[in-house]
Automatic annotation (TrEMBL):
This is Amino acid ABC transporter permease. Gene3D superfamilies: MetI-like (1.10.3720.10). It comes from Streptacidiphilus monticola. It comes from the Bacteria. Keywords: Amino-acid transport, Cell membrane, Membrane, Transmembrane, Transmembrane helix, Transport. Its main location: membrane. The keyword Transmembrane applies. The chain crosses the membrane at residues 32-50, 77-97, 109-131, 151-170, 255-282.
């Protein structure tokens, strides 16, 4: 059965049905050149790593599990946890103070952030370590009056405490800006709606604003945690035996400095990899309210790739 459109005669000069478009894939020769260059460089590095006898991989394995190195790793992890705890709590307080309508609180927060972000963390570590030279005793009492109790600064603030204070208080200044950016990313209408329901400023911040700000806070917070793990290596400058200092001491005693540094680097890579995986899943958890579909996990990506390879033609879709 034909329709009037099918039996309509063609008008002379009217173009007929256009031919099908043949899609020609765009060639990218620059990509292949880059792949070849990267492959050659990777092969050279792999050859150097596997054939250079001066690396002493057997020594690297021994240093990797040496008790002193394991103890230094434990101290590094403990420093990271304590410093980040101080930084997170202090950063939230400083961010709230910075956004406060009270000029005294906002000014104090701004000055703190200005000082601790404007000076190197290594200088701050030295400052906390040698502060006992100008303040030999720390006491509790009335200004210009009697002192109820006092302690020696050096006995109260040891190397580990000085390192924790130096790293944690410095981190608080950076984390305050992260939290402030997260709070400012939440629409003001949320706070106004909470106020209309009778919630106080504290309840609004804790129950309404911060949960929504977490999707902005979590990514840089994870980066700061990984960065803090590596920043703890600076405490070796004040003679605190962390992972880096333990590896250097072994290298100086045995003259296997490069193998010792490789062993320490492998531990840092292992721990940062674990933290990166944890950061990914935490970001994925807090992305539930902003994305319609959650991003696939690494295992799901691998399964999708394998499923695509099993399709006819091996095309990954």
């Amino acid at each position: 059965m034909t329709t009037p459109q099918d039996t309509r005669p063609e008008v002379p000069g009217t173009p007929g049905r256009p031919e099908e478009i043949r899609a020609v894939p765009v060639r990218h020769p620059g990509r292949w050149v880059a792949v070849v260059v990267i492959a050659v460089l990777f092969a050279q590095c792999l050859h150097l790593v596997l054939t250079n006898k001066d690396l002493h991989w057997d020594v690297v394995g021994q240093i990797f599990t040496y008790p002193t190195v394991i103890h230094g790793l434990y101290r590094t992890l403990l420093l990271t946890v304590l410093a980040m705890a101080i930084g997170i709590v202090g950063g939230i307080l400083l961010a709230v103070m910075r956004l406060s309508h009270n000029p005294v609180l906002s000014t104090v927060s701004w000055v703190y952030i200005w000082v601790f972000r404007g000076t190197p963390v290594l200088v701050q570590l030295f400052f906390w370590n040698f502060l006992g030279a100008i303040i030999p005793n720390v006491g509790i009492g009335v200004p210009f009056g009697p002192t109820f109790a006092h302690w020696s600064y050096n006995s109260l603030v040891g190397l580990f405490t000085a390192a924790t204070l130096g790293l944690g208080l410095n981190e608080a200044a950076y984390f305050a800006e992260i939290v402030r950016a997260g709070i400012l990313s939440v629409d003001e209408g949320q706070s106004e709606a909470a106020a209309s329901l009778g919630l106080t400023r504290g309840q609004t911040l804790w129950r309404i604003v911060l949960p929504q700000a977490m999707r902005v806070i979590i990514p840089p917070a994870g980066n700061e945690t990984i960065s803090m793990l590596k920043t703890t290596s600076l405490v070796s400058a004040i003679a605190l035996e962390d992972l880096t200092r333990a590896a250097l001491d072994i290298g100086n005693r045995t003259l296997y400095i490069i193998p010792a540094l490789i062993a320490a680097s492998l531990w840092y890579l292992l721990v940062t990899s674990v933290l990166s995986v944890g950061q990914y899943y935490i970001e994925r958890y807090y992305a539930r309210g902003s994305n319609r579909a959650l991003p696939p996990t690494p295992i799901q990506k691998v399964r999708a790739q394998l499923a695509g390879l099993r399709k006819p033609g091996g095309a990954v879709r």
